[in-house]
Amino acid sequence: MKHQIIVAGKPALAYAKTGTAEYLKRLKRYGSYDLKHIKDGSSEDVSQRLLEGSEGTLRIVMDERGESLNTAQLTKKINAWEMRGVKRASYLIGASDGHTEELRQQADLVWALSPLTLQHELALVVLLEQLYRIATIQRGEPYHR
Ligand SMILES: C[S@@+](CC[C@H](N)C(=O)[O-])C[C@H]1O[C@@H](n2cnc3c(N)ncnc32)[C@H](O)[C@@H]1O
Questions:
Q1: Does residue 100 have a known ligand-binding role?
Q2: CATH (residue range 2-138)
Q3: How far does residue 22's CA lie from ligand 1's centre (Å)?
Q4: Is 113 annotated as contributing to ligand binding?
Q5: Half-sphere exposure of 42 (CA within 13 A, CB side)
Q6: What are the residue ranges spanned by the domains of the chain?
Q7: Is 142 annotated as belonging to a binding site?
Q8: Where does S-adenosyl-L-methionine bind (predicted)?
Q9: Long-range contacts of 37-42, Cβ-Cβ distance < 8 Å, separation of 24 or more
Q10: What is the DSSP string of 3-14?
Q11: Which of 35, 53, 96, 136: CA 20 to 30 A from 3?
Q12: What is the pLDDT along the chain (145 residues), one digit of tens a residue?
């Protein structure tokens, strides 16, 4: 399965840029993980861009109100999607005002990394670390303990 991560707004925080670059570099060994930044704006505009950008893919909407899953549960879900023949998944990170209800309704999964509201670039780094962790679990490598 190919993974694309779409984030609203340009990268601005130095620590997040470093973390993002580190996990994207690590993920290269494991498959296709593409990061796209889209223009920031109102919740409605950003959600519309996220909807369009993820057209035809499995949609995972990142949102603190979503389902709380541990890493093993997420790994199982990704394995099941791959078994079902899903070719592309999109992980959608919103802007300061969050996602519209319409976008949440169009999601295959609304996933909360935690019940805390995270700055969107920090949410991106946590998401990438989890995707890396899941990729190592799928390969049977010892990163996850
Ligand atoms: C600053 S947050 C937006 C908060 C906004 N007040 C809301 O109601 O959603 C920006 C984006 O970061 C992501 N995000 C923040 N915290 C998250 C969490 N705990 N789990 C998953 N995604 C999160 C979401 O995609 C969110 O749209």
A1: no
A2: 3.40.1280.10
A3: 22
A4: yes
A5: 2
A6: 2-138
A7: no
A8: 94, 113-118
A9: 37/6, 37/7, 37/8, 37/9, 37/10, 37/11, 38/6, 38/7, 38/8, 39/8, 39/9, 40/8, 40/9, 40/10, 40/95, 40/96, 41/8, 41/95, 42/95, 42/97
A10: EEEEEES----H
A11: 96
A12: 999 999 998 889 999 999 999 999 999 999 999 999 999 999 999 999 999 999 999 999 999 999 999 999 999 999 999 999 999 999 999 989 999 999 999 999 999 999 999 999 999 999 999 999 999 999 999 998 8
Is the C-beta atom of 63 inside 6 A of ligand 1? Answer: yes
118 is in an annotated binding site: yes
The confidence score (pLDDT) of residue 57 equals 98
**Residue identifier of the C-alpha nearest atom 23 of ligand 1:** 63
Q: Is the CB of 122 under 6 A from ligand 1?
A: no
